[in-house]
Design brief:
The complex is a heterodimer of chains A (about 350) and B (about 350). Chain A has 13 helices and 12 strands. Chain A is of the alpha/beta class. An 8-stranded mixed sheet of chain A has the order 6-7-8-3-9-10-12-11. Chain A has a 4-stranded antiparallel sheet with strand order 2-1-4-5. The chains are: A alpha/beta (about 350), B mainly alpha (about 350).
Chain lengths: ~350, ~350
């Protein structure tokens, strides 16, 4: 295996609030390898965005606080370098696509100017940046890019704005692209287009991508490997086929079973019982134990935080004390994927 | 799905395919291919559906132009400013020139050549100086002072408000307490003291003293807007792109704050004219022989109200200028409000 492009070790991020300390991210560890797409899944509040935003210094501090951990990118620890250096990395070697294209573009700015700003901020001169920004708009499939570049965001549709955001993100040929729920704010047909654009952008730049989403379909479509997060922790990690075919964490199984299948008539979906835990006072032991079908009455689940450990000495990791009991328990989503592909 | 339903769907689908005898091109059903969509939109452009884009400022300008009162005020104000700028050409006399044949002369009108030295449209004072000419020169001084005050205090207020609002934290606290301090000062008393010790007489110094007292409301306004803009996704996006703080403030946030800043600056001009007039009237502003509107009123009232024209005409001009600027400010405020699509009369 090649050296990882980004390796996060034991990242812990907390937020001080009036109600107490929110443990948003606890001991998160994962690697991103060059050129791959890593999907991070989890429900809202599971810490998937915070874990990546904190790398780029984009969480408000205070109240946010990186308590511990390191994030080695290109030989440097992003959590320790000076703000000026981090600024040069942001939008340069590491760039982001945001969730809501409607509000992520400045309304008083021409779209072309906003894209060239990404270039100017990293040392290109204005003229070259203008030419390149039109080229970028063409790459992401905006028709009539030279006219469109001199229009304002309100003249763009939602899908086109997200294309423009992707153009900004790939402007400086990043090595790592972080897409934070890039399709959530769009309707389904546009989502399909944006996925195509994301694929194209990746081909263009050969960037590794971190895809943050709660859309398992998107993961199946784009990701090579998957990190499943729950309550600020990584609960399962592995390549996309393994995760879909033989999940080894009850939460992952629950996630997949709560989705409808297209191929079978289904009257009843099986949601995960209970609520996501409060991040101010997370349950002791395994954070998932109050909702877990394996945990019933077992003390170890309530008392010990399960470590992330390899399954059968492979690259597939699970943080469940009883992962072995899940052998043979395929996910029904996998059947769907097989049936449609 | 039952079979009858499937048939119905098929029927609907077929009927949708045939639209007025013409088949819908297949491309429309395929959202996945950017190139096909590109081709579609290109066609729309070429078929003459080209819509002229109007910029944000285009909208503002249109709304402002339709605001009749503001436009009329702007016209009057431009005329007054032109007269002030070209005072040496327009005024029949120099401001300190004495017409010994007309001392204590009430306004009188000899000829329709309004600017002829035979007229004393606003009368003369006890030295026989033509008050029309003195008022014109007075506008010049007062407006100049007002513009400097508005410009300077806008720059100070915007800078302090922007820095406080953008960075937050203890710097914000410090700057805002300083602002509070300035706000609690009794303006007139401070002005009188400051003017007496620092800058009596010289218009520029008077302007600077006024500016140092008038930046506070704008600082608070700008800070408030910056606090809300700071949380906007596009500011976060700009940060994620690696833009510098200075660039984010100047290029992303200031343009979104410009509306209130412009309105505030406009209204400040009016306030500055009034305060400068008050200051000069009290004898702490601009010193003779330089005429300023407040000073002219002061000169007039010391003669008693018998010489009513000495008080009335400079007073009317002050009121006119202040009114015009306030109307323009109203018009700008309406025009810059993006939620207001409808144009008021």
């Amino acid at each position: 295996m090649p050296d990882p492009l980004l390796s996060i070790r034991d990242l812990t991020v907390e937020f001080d609030t009036d109600d107490g300390v929110v443990y948003a991210v606890t001991g998160v560890t994962y690697d991103v390898f060059p050129g791959e797409t890593l999907g991070i899944v989890g429900e809202s509040g599971s810490g998937k965005s915070v874990s990546t935003m904190s790398l780029l210094g984009l969480i408000p501090q205070p109240p946010g606080r990186v308590v511990s951990g390191e994030a080695i990118f290109d030989g440097r620890d992003l959590l320790k370098i000076k703000p000026g250096e981090l600024r040069r990395i942001r939008g340069g070697a590491v760039s982001m696509v945001f969730q809501d294209p409607m509000t992520s573009l400045n309304p008083v700015f021409k779209v072309g100017d906003q894209i060239s700003e990404a270039l100017v901020a990293h040392g290109h001169d204005e003229k070259a940046a203008t030419v390149r920004s039109i080229e970028l708009l063409r790459i992401v499939g905006i028709p009539n890019p030279d006219q469109r570049a001199s229009q304002y965001p309100h003249e763009f549709s939602g899908g086109m704005r997200q294309r423009a955001m992707i153009a900004m993100a790939i402007a400086n040929e990043p090595k790592l692209l972080i897409a934070d729920e890039p399709t959530t704010a769009l309707d389904v047909t546009i989502q399909a287009q944006i996925i195509e654009v994301m694929k194209k952008a990746q081909e263009e730049t050969h960037a590794a991508t971190i895809l943050i989403t709660h859309d398992l379909g998107l993961i199946a479509e784009l990701a090579d490997r998957v990190v499943v997060m729950y309550a600020g922790r990584v609960v399962e990690q592995g390549d996309v086929h393994t995760i879909f075919a033989s999940p080894r964490h009850p939460y992952t199984i629950g996630l997949m079973e709560s989705l409808p299948r297209l191929t079978v008539d289904e009257d009843w979906l099986r949601p995960i019982p209970g609520q996501p835990p409060s991040m101010i006072s997370p349950p002791p032991g395994c954070p998932f134990h109050p909702r877990c079908f394996l945990a019933q009455g077992r003390n170890v689940c309530r008392e010990e935080v399960p470590p992330l450990r390899p399954i059968e000495e492979s690259a597939h990791l699970s943080a469940c004390h009883f992962a072995e009991e899940l052998v043979g328990r395929g996910s029904k989503l996998h059947e769907t994927v097989e049936a449609t592909s | 799905m039952s079979s009858s339903q499937r048939d119905l769907d098929k029927e609907l689908y077929d009927s949708a395919l045939v639209d007025g005898g013409k088949e819908i091109p297949e491309a429309i059903g395929m959202p996945n291919d950017p190139m096909i969509i590109a081709a579609d939109v290109t066609l729309a452009y070429e078929s003459g559906l080209n819509i002229q884009a109007r910029s944000q400022w285009g909208y503002v300008w249109r709304r402002f132009v339709r605001h009749k009162l503001a436009m009329a005020s702007a016209a009057v104000l431009v005329l007054i400013f032109l007269i002030a700028i070209f005072a040496p050409q327009v005024a029949p006399y120099r401001y300190d020139e004495i017409d010994l044949e007309a001392l204590y002369s009430p306004p009188h009108f000899e000829t329709w050549h309004l600017l002829s030295p035979q007229n004393h449209l606003f009368g003369t004072d006890l030295l026989g100086r033509d008050y029309f000419s003195r008022v014109i020169y007075g506008i010049r001084t007062s407006v100049w002072v007002a513009l400097v005050v508005a410009g300077l205090s806008t720059v100070i207020g915007t800078a302090i408000g922007a820095i406080a609002g953008y960075f937050g934290g203890w710097g914000d606290n410090l700057l805002m307490r300083i602002t509070d301090l300035f706000l609690t000062l009794p303006t007139l008393a401070v002005l009188l003291v400051a003017a007496a010790y620092l800058g009596q007489g010289d218009p520029l110094r008077v302007a600077i003293i006024l500016a140092l007292l008038f930046w506070t409301p704008l600082a608070r306004i700008v800070r408030g807007i910056f606090l809300s803009l700071r949380e906007k996704e596009y500011v976060e996006a700009a940060k994620a792109l690696g833009s510098r703080d200075s660039r984010i403030i100047i290029r992303h946030m200031l343009p979104n704050t410009l509306g209130p800043i412009i309105v505030n600056a406009t209204l400040l001009i009016a306030t500055a004219i009034l305060v400068e007039a008050a200051l000069s009237f009290l004898g702490f502003g601009i010193q003779p022989p330089t005429p300023a509107l407040g000073k002219l009123i002061d000169d007039g009232q010391s003669e008693g109200l018998k010489l009513w024209w000495l008080v009335t005409f400079p007073g009317l001009v002050i009121v006119l200028i202040a009114l015009c600027i306030n109307f323009i400010g109203d018009g700008l405020r309406d025009a810059l409000d993006p939620t207001q699509r409808r144009v008021r009369a």
